[in-house]
Each structure stands twice: as structure tokens, then as C-alpha cells.
Amino acid sequence: MSGMSGMSGSSMPGGSSGGSGASSGSGQTSAEQFPKLTGDPGTVKLGMAYDGPKGDQSFTDSAARGVANATGQGVQLVAELAATVGEPDQKKVDRLSQLVDQGANTVIAVGFDYATAMGTVAEANPDVHFAIVDDASLTDPSRQGGPLKNVAGLTFAAEQSSFLVGVAAALKSTKGHVGFIGGVNVPLIQSFQAGFDAGAKAANSGIKIDDKYITQPPDFSGFNAPDKGQTIAQGMYNGGADIIYSAAGGSGTGVFKAAKAANAKAIGVDSDQYNLPTLADVKDVILTSAVKNVDVAVYAMIQSVAAGKPLTGTQVYDLKNGGVGYATSGGFVSDIQSKLDDYKAKIISGEIKVPSTLG
To answer: What is the pLDDT of residues 178-213, one digit of tens each?
Structure first.
């Protein structure tokens, strides 16, 4: 699970003007955002490299949904491989190279921590199409040596969806005290905090906000440490917060457990976590979720290769093109939905500029 740090670029190819999770109620990707693949899907030989195992109920699983929708239409899945926590970049280089060696002509890496490795492998394989989720360093025009022409940077305006759930938290808090828990203290996750804090303060200038991170780099285990997420959340709830936004991947399950024990609320991330079967026992504490449609970005990359026009450069998925949004499942924000949509409209129009960095 990752964010993005205020990149700008072209709009989402093939996306809809709506957004799953915006006002659709489900927060999951809507059918129109998976248009039938055009061109020749059978020519796509796909290799997927995840930054953690499937089953995180958010970031990785969202990417996997995009893959599933494509393979159901004839795309060949060469292999799906996952990283381990704290592994060196060379292991990521080996993993990406393995996908190429196995015949993949399209390689998608899910997670910004693949950037260094992808730079190496993409330069060595100019005829292979690469994409990386949550990173634009390889497609940055100011990059030393210039942007890589066979790479697409799939980035998300996570600060925009985080702003909206920040508004929701402030409006629904009865104590005027909310919290943010990030998985790892890196710029990409700081953009979630920046948006959330700004949204909460926009709705209530006097709101108290607790901001904490589970781990500090180079320790990236904070994205899959539910026990630590639960402990931090318990401390926040005991300290007076009544709603906590967790931007911490699989660690969010611990935050939900803490919310349940405290008779409080929490906010999910990346997918509409209220609707996930594995979270059925805590769904009643999930106020909303900041939805990031990684599945749509992954699918768009696959579609572009099938159509013979592979995406390159930085692709930004935001509120305007339906790349991010907020979930309404459970009806907990129904009474404030009109206010949330007003803020959404102002962000889309540019009237509200959401910060993507702290400070």
C-alpha cells in the first residue's frame, strides 16, 4: 500500500468520469471502469511483481482484481511473484528479470519500492513494456539520463481521497479528536496524512489530530503488522480519539480490531474495506474508506498493450477521472454525503488545492 506525492500528468486512459467509492455506494470498481479489452488480449504476456503477498485486503488485492479482469479476457499471466519484507533491491531485480526470462512482454510492479530495480531491468530490456504503481521517478523528465521510454508510472492522487475521509472524520467525530496511522514514514504515505489532516481541519479548524507511523524506513514491515497497528490504535482511542484513519495496508486489520474494542470507528484504505468478507466481523466500525483504484490502473496498462499503444510516462489517477474516491457502504456517512461531494467538486474544479506533502 502506497500513496503518491503530488505528481501531475495525463488523465486515466479508458477511465470513467465517475469514481468507484465516490458516490456509488460500493467503493469497489464499477463495471464501466473495466471496459472490454480491445485489440488482441492474447498478445499480452503479463508478469506481476507484488510488494507483498495477496490477502492484504487492500493494496495488493486491488491490483490483483485488475489482473483477474484481464486474464478472464485472454491475457496470458506468465507469473505472479511477491517480495518479502526488507529484501535488498537485487532480489527485486532478480524477480523482474525472472518474469522477463519467462516470456513476459508486459511487467507490472506493484509498489514504489520496486523503482530502483525496475530502472535496472527496464533499461536492459527496451522491448518489454513496464509499469510501476505509486512511483513516477522513472518517468520524471528531470531524471538523470531522462525518463525511461518503456515505463509507465501509475500514480494516484491519494491526498484527494484522504482529504475527503478527513472531512468525514471531523464531521462524524463526537469528541473533536481523530487520528492517522501510516504504515511506514515515507513521502508517499505522508501524502495520505497531508490530505487527511487538511480535510479534517477544513471541516473543523479546532480538531485535534494524532499522527503516528508504525515503522520508519528502511523497515517496511509497517504495512503488514496488524498487532502493532492495533497497539498504536488502542493508545489513540484511550487518549481520546474516536475515529482513526489507517493508511497502513494489512496493518489496518489491527486498527479495526482496536476500534471494535473501543466502541469507536475507523477508516479503511485502498478498497471499500466494509465489503470485504474477511472483515465481516469488524465492518460495523468502518466509517468509510479512502478508495484507490489500483485495479483500474493495472487494467488500463494491460489494455494499452493489448491495443498496441502501451502507456508510457506518468499517468495520474485522481478524483476527476475516477482513480480515487471514498466509500459509502454501511450508510455511516449518508447524512454528510452532500457535504463530502461539495468538497469533492471543489477539489476537481481546483477551488481547493489539497496538499500532498507535510509542512
So the answer is: 999 999 999 999 999 999 999 999 999 999 999 999
- Residues 264-295 pLDDT 10s: 999 999 889 999 888 999 999 999 999 999 99
CA atoms within 13 A on the CB side of 341: 15
Question: Residue 8's CB: how many other CB atoms inside 10 A?
Answer: 10
Amino acid at 64: A
Report the mean per-residue pLDDT for the chain.
Answer: 91
DSSP H helical segments within 48-114, as ranges?
A: 59-71, 89-101
DSSP structure string for 206-223: T-EEEEEEEE-TT--GGG
Q: What letter would DSSP give residue 10?
A: B
Per-residue burial over 29-64, b = 16 or more CB atoms within 10 Å of its CB, e = otherwise:
bbeebbeebeeebeebbbbbbbbbeeebbbbbbbbb
Whether the pLDDT of residue 11 is over 70: the answer is no
| Residue with grid cell 468507484, as numbered in its chain | 20
End-to-end CA distance of the chain: 23
Task: Return the DSSP state at 49.
Answer: E
**The three three-digit cell numbers of residue 186, written as one number:** 515515507
Q: What is the pTM of this model?
A: 0.84
- State how far the Cα of 196 lies from the Cα of 169, in Å rounded to an integer: 9
Q: Are strands 129-133 and 151-156 parallel, antiparallel or unpaired?
A: parallel
Averaged pLDDT for residues 67-79: 97
Question: What is the set of domains in the chain, with CATH numbers?
Answer: 31-157+293-317 (3.40.50.2300), 158-291+325-349 (3.40.50.2300)
Instruction: Give the C-alpha separation, 33 to 56, whole Å.
Output: 22
Pull the grid cell for residue 252. 489496518
Nearest residue to 311 (alpha-carbon basis) of 136, 163, 171: 136
3-class SS of residue 348: helix
Quote the CA–CA distance of 70 and 53 in Å, as a whole number.
Answer: 20
* DSSP labels, 236-285: HHHTT--EEEEESGGGHHHHHHHHHHTT-EEEEEES-GGG-GGGTTTGGG
Strand 286-292 with 324-326, pairing: antiparallel
Three-class SS of residue 11?
A: coil
